[in-house]
Structure formats: C-alpha cells, structure tokens
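call fold(seq) -> tokens
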Amino acid sequence: MATRKSTLALAAVMATALLGGCATETETKTSEKPKWPDTEASSVWSYIESHDYRKNWSFWPGKGELYQGQEPHGALLTTYVNELAQDALTSGAAKMPQGDTIVKENYSPGRELAAITVMYKAEEGYNPDHNDWFW
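ret:
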C-alpha cells in the first residue's frame, strides 16, 4: 500500500512539474515579441538570408519556380514568402501584418538571375502612403 501511495505521489509531482513547465513555455512564447529587422536594406537582407528563404519559405500561393513574369519585373519569376505572409495570403487576410516578407527573384528569358526584389511589411506608421511596405 505504501508503494502505491509513493507511486501516485511521484506521478502527481511529475505531472505538476510537466504541466507547470508547459505553462511557462507557452507564456514565454506568447509574451516574446518577434524580432523584425529595421528598415535598412542590410538588416532586411540579413533577416532573409538568416532564414534561408529558398530552402525554408513557400512559393507565392499558386505559383512555382520560374513562372511567366511581366514588366517591370523579369521574364521569369520565382517568388518566396515567409510563413507570416503565406498565412495572410492563404487565409484571405484584409491586411498584411508586420513582418510579412516577399522575395521575388527576377530572371532573364535565358533563366539567368537578373535581380532580387524584396518587400518587407514594416511597423505601422513607417510609410503610410505605401501601406507601410519597405522595398
């Protein structure tokens, strides 16, 4: 009987510790504010590179690699979006939230990379005339 009580007590302590740890982790995740880059080209580019956009981000919804482009962009395009932008685009959000990042690779007809165009949704008030986009 003592063994059963000890086992139940130990299980209760472990469950409490586990649940307490989960609550702390959740609180930490929800209270942490994302670190977005400032609106300097080098900061935005460092953010994009540090996330390895070609490997870890999605294509623009409904597009893939080297789709037909139009002026003023390249003849062929590949457009990547971070997770935040992907969620906003696929959910039909009325407004793109801060942190949305879009990387458009512009290719020549011969499939040579000609330019990379970046759009980054900065904090509210950054550029109200252009919906706070930095590019």
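Confidence is low (pLDDT under 50) at residues 1-31.
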